[in-house]
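Project outcomes to date are best conveyed with an example. Our students and postdoctoral researchers have been running inverse folding experiments weekly, and each run begins with a structure described purely in tokens. The record below, which covers 185 residues, was selected by the lab manager from last quarter's runs and is presented without edits.
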């Protein structure tokens, strides 16, 4: 059991037999009355989101989620296939289970597949990934200090804002939590 005030982004909790992943949390203190915590939760199995408000003294059941180092293999329709790097077992996950991680997946990329018991429930990407710029306007030499950006499409299909000096074919590091450009790799 964890206190609802200790729930942070990415934590997995169980309520009424349903697994939820915490997407966002907000601590609310009114002038009168006790403090409350508002959580935005995503149903891990079905993919829908709900907003729930709890008293600050409430307790939640933390779900025991294991992580397996896996390598992304390929996508076939709505299924994404991963291979456990230790046992070489293939693990299929659907689009809802993969979620936003699909924006950062490239062939042979390494990530963690989250499991609850023997059931795979999701994917956790590293904090930053290196992707190749597939499409972008040509870069301008010497334009590094202006701070202006341009849109670029990466090899995974993700659109990010990059500095003007980045060209197609360049490798860039992208933050997987916010989807923002970090640096050229």
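After processing, the design step wrote out the following sequence:
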């Amino acid at each position: 059991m964890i206190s609802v005030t200790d729930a942070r982004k990415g934590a997995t909790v169980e309520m009424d037999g349903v697994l939820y992943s915490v997407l966002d949390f907000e601590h609310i203190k009114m002038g009168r009355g006790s403090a409350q915590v508002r959580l935005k939760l995503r149903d891990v199995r079905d993919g829908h989101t709900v907003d729930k408000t709890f008293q600050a003294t409430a307790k939640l059941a933390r779900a025991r989620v294991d992580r397996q180092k896996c390598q992304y293999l390929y996508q076939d329709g709505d299924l994404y296939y991963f291979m456990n790097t230790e046992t070489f077992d293939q693990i299929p996950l659907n689009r809802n289970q993969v979620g936003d991680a699909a924006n950062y997946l490239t062939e042979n990329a390494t990530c963690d597949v989250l499991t609850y018991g023997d059931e795979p429930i999701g994917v956790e990407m590293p904090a930053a990934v290196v992707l190749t710029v597939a499409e972008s306007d040509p870069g301008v030499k010497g334009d590094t200090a202006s701070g202006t950006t341009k849109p670029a499409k990466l090899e995974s299909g993700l659109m990010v804002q990059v500095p003007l000096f980045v060209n197609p074919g360049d490798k860039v590091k992208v933050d997987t939590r916010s989807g923002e450009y970090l640096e050229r790799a």
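The chain has three domains: 2-62, 66-124, 128-184. The domain at 128-184 is CATH 2.40.50.140 (OB fold (Dihydrolipoamide Acetyltransferase, E2P)). The training component of this project remains on track.
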